[in-house]
Design goal:
- By secondary structure, the chain is α/β, with parallel strands linked by helices.
- The chain has helices at residues 5-21, 154-159, 178-188, 205-218, 235-253, 266-279, 293-301, 332-340, 349-353, 376-381, 385-399, 407-423, 433-444, 453-470, 472-481, 486-510, and strands spanning 31-38, 41-45, 54-58, 63-69, 74-78, 90-97, 99-102, 110-111, 128-131, 148-149, 162-163, 169-173, 194-201, 224-229, 258-264, 315-324, 343-347, 366-367.
- The chain folds into 3 domains: 31-96, Elongation Factor Tu (Ef-tu), domain 3 (Beta Barrel), CATH 2.40.30.20; 101-374, 3-Layer(aba) Sandwich (Rossmann fold); 380-510, Up-down Bundle (Lysin).
- Helix content is 41%, strand content 19%.
- The model has no long low-confidence stretch (mean pLDDT 91).
């Protein structure tokens, strides 16, 4: 049907108005070309305005970010498989930096650093994304670290208390239980309000699966995020993993919640950083690491903080893991990380071989927050523990040269054996605050002196159920207040004494 003159005039008027509103200025789009690609690095020409850290898109849909700028070329690190990228492929700059999805939609999921699911479930429908690189909170925006992180590990909670907002390094040789300490800490948050983010960098897939399975069995996986960049992942993906995990945790911290980030481990991350730096022809420094390796880890870990009340009072606690070679804490990367963090938990290969688990070296370990973030119930019951244990370790060395005749020294050594038995703890069995306080108070009052050290292990394993059955109101009071007055202390000690006698009697009957 032919358009009437009036309709045609109206149609023309609308189109003229639309053309008048349209921005017809020229638009410039820079397109680069891949000159060479190998080992997860693409060398690109034709993008003179690209910036460090900028996200690039390849014509096949792959992504990468700018790591190095030269006069004629840029070097981009790929975060996807480079098998489908060839020389001559088109590359476009996005003007954006690498971003990670954040929010409650990630809780309970296993994802890669870009938020892509690895648990064969539905894609993540996160409403927000955040840059993986963010400035650390300023000093004026931080508050004192005064609230404890209950790890459930007696030797840590009693001697090297962690605070919310602290950065505590877990360091030791290979296969000394570093990841076990971190996983037990995550599991212990089952009874707290902390959100946990576990970041695996360059780890074997089987090891990561064991961690996830342990948390699902014993912890609260619905309040955990698992960020995985395994050894088989692209080097670029492994490099951004700690930063992406930190961004995911910051989302909760900035909303007044409390988050815990475990990075397993930064030694692997440093190796990846060295690999990428050498491939992009950056000048090598000590041990072939580039000069900025300290800055990379410093700007990452400085993001852990306790925010001031005006910003919501949230906290982000970091537990980075580092590996040493033959116990050498003076190596380059461990030294760097020790200087960045607020203390370290050192695990000893000798103690691990001697079946002391967790193999924490109490002489080399330290927490620079310490008692300021420790509940009063623990602070009072563990005040002399470290000194008594250190004296026992020194005396034990001398007993190897001959017998001990002094009764006071014999009593001190006997007490030391019971301290060692108490500080030993099986994996995946974190203790509650009231259980730790009861055991330490009983030790201080000499409850275990009349029993063999083996009885201590059984008392520790049975104490939780025993208190829940016989002193539930008392246990709830200590858990709620964190205090241990004289009456409560006496009743807890009597409960442990009674349990120890029952266990000893059972052992004698069975024997």
């Amino acid at each position: 049907m032919a358009m009437s003159d009036r309709s045609r005039d109206a149609w023309l008027a609308r189109n003229r108005a639309a053309l008048a509103r349209a921005a017809l200025a020229p638009q410039i789009e820079q397109i680069g070309r891949v000159e060479a690609v190998a080992d997860g690095i693409a060398r690109i020409s034709g993008l003179p305005s690209a910036r460090l850290g900028e996200l690039l898109r390849f014509e096949g849909g792959q992504s990468g970010f700018v790591l190095a700028l030269d006069a004629a070329q840029i070097s981009a690190v790929l975060v996807d498989d480079d098998a489908r990228i060839e020389a001559g492929a088109r590359v476009a700059g996005t003007g954006e930096v690498v971003r990670a999805p954040v929010g409650p939609e990630l809780l309970g999921r296993v994802v890669d650093p870009l938020g892509r699911p690895l648990d064969r479930a539905d894609p993540i429908a996160a409403a927000q994304t955040q840059p993986i690189e963010r400035a650390a909170p300023a000093i004026i925006d931080r508050d004192l670290v005064s609230e404890p992180v209950e790890t459930g590990i007696l030797v840590v909670d009693a001697l090297f208390a962690l605070g919310r907002g602290q950065r505590e390094l877990i360091v030791g040789d290979r296969a000394t239980g570093k990841t076990a300490v971190a996983v037990d800490t995550i599991i212990a948050q089952k009874h707290t309000d902390m959100i946990c983010v576990y970041v695996a960098v360059g780890q074997r897939a089987t090891a990561v699966e064991r961690v996830i399975e342990a948390v699902r069995r014993h912890g609260a996986p619905e309040r955990c995020i698992f960020v995985v960049a395994s050894a088989a992942a692209a080097p670029g993906l492994q490099w951004i993993a700690p930063f992406a995990g930190m961004a995911m945790a910051e989302y909760f911290r900035d909303r007044g919640d409390h988050a815990l980030v475990v990075i397993d481990d930064l030694t692997q991350h440093a190796a990846i950083h060295r690999e990428l730096a050498l491939l992009t022809r950056e000048p090598p420094g000590r041990e072939a690491y580039p000069g900025d390796v300290f800055y990379v880890h410093a700007r990452l870990l400085e993001r852990a903080a306790k925010l001031s009340k005006s910003l919501g009072g949230g906290s982000l606690t970091a537990l980075p893991i580092a590996e040493t070679d033959a116990g050498n804490l003076a190596a380059y990367i461990p030294t760097n990380l020790i200087s960045i963090t607020d203390g370290q938990i050192v695990l000893s290969a000798e103690l691990f071989a001697a079946n002391q688990r967790p193999a924490v070296d109490v002489g080399l370990s330290v927490s620079r927050v310490g008692g300021k973030a420790q509940k009063r119930a623990l602070r009072e019951t563990s005040s002399r523990l470290r000194l008594d244990y250190a004296q026992f370790l020194e005396l034990e060395i001398f007993t190897r040269f001959g017998g001990v005749t002094d009764s006071r020294v014999k009593a001190q050594i006997a007490r030391g054996h019971r301290i060692r038995a108490l500080l030993s703890q099986p994996r995946l069995a974190p203790l509650r605050l009231v259980h730790e306080a009861a055991l330490l108070a009983a030790l201080s009052d000499g409850v275990f002196d009349e029993h063999r050290p083996a009885i201590v292990d059984k008392v520790r394993a049975l104490l939780g159920g025993y208190l829940d059955t016989n002193a539930s109101a008392l246990a709830e009071e200590v858990s709620r207040t964190g205090e241990l007055d004289e009456n409560v202390r006496r009743r807890l000690v009597e409960a442990v004494r009674e349990l120890a006698r029952e266990v000893a009697a059972s052992e004698e009957t069975r024997g």
